Amino acid sequence: MKHLVSRREFLKAGSLLTAGLLIPGLADSAPKARPLRYKIAVVDLMILKRQKLGALPLTKEIGADGVELDMGGLGQRETFDNQLAKPEIRQQFLDKARELGLEICSLAMTGFYAQSFATRPTYQRMVQDCFDTMQLMNVKVAFLPLGTQGDLVRNPELRPAIVERLKVVGRMAQKAGVVVGIETALDARGEVELLREIGSKHIQIYFNFSNPLKAGRDLHEELKILGRKRICQMHCTDEDGVWLEHNTRLDMRRVKQTLAEMNWQGWLVIERSRDANDARNVRRNFGANAAYLKSIFQAG
């Protein structure tokens, strides 16, 4: 009899467990998908503090979580005018970032906006200098714009040289344990094909929202075509004119939904979207945009 009661209790417990799996609220202990995380950064060059220690307290004042630091000017030098190569200056940046609770999300080689990545004879030294600095500062993403001289839409004849050089950079990045995010003038399908040609997981796309918007392409479709694994980081702004919250061609809540559908998370970096009537008011412009992005991407 004692054995029979025990069996009945066992069967009753089993039926309750089964019911718990069917009734909402009784199965809350089941594993849930982790929410996607987004962090907001600003560009030191665009807040007028290129490689200046003051970029860090200003970033904190703006309300961002981190900063993209520039590698310095290029001009006709053999490599960047990189103050972060100096141990004492680099340590000041690291110490100040730690003190303020900020992160350095990426290093930018913006010198290539106006200089030719396809023809500069010392490109490997420039890129290696960036990688060396990244390793010393524990930064995992480099930004490499192909710029006006590397525009593959207007200058398709440069493609073989650029692809060959990016293959080299990809091998260098793999050795350094970093990722290089390139910005091109191609549409998303063109970038997918370019990445296939390069053939390195260490070369990805640094997506800039303003590029498809300026060209009249569908921002959300472009993101989906590229997909989660091809995008390392994003410049999450548009051309200057109005703040993000007033931009009628950029629906940031829909962007968040698109990124969620892609399962993409990471750094959203504020580059522009300044008020055209007050473009040099850094605190006002970047503070407003940072607050707006946080209200959408970090709410709840």
UniProtKB/TrEMBL annotation:
SUPFAM superfamilies referenced in this protein's UniProt entry, alphabetically: Xylose isomerase-like
Keywords for the protein's UniProt record, in alphabetical order: Isomerase
Domain (Xylose isomerase-like TIM barrel): residue spans on this chain: 58-284
One term of GO molecular function: isomerase activity
Pfam families given in the database record: AP_endonuc_2
PANTHER family given in the database record: BLR5974 PROTEIN (PTHR12110:SF53), HYDROXYPYRUVATE ISOMERASE (PTHR12110)
UniProt protein name: Sugar phosphate isomerase/epimerase
Organism: Hymenobacter nitidus
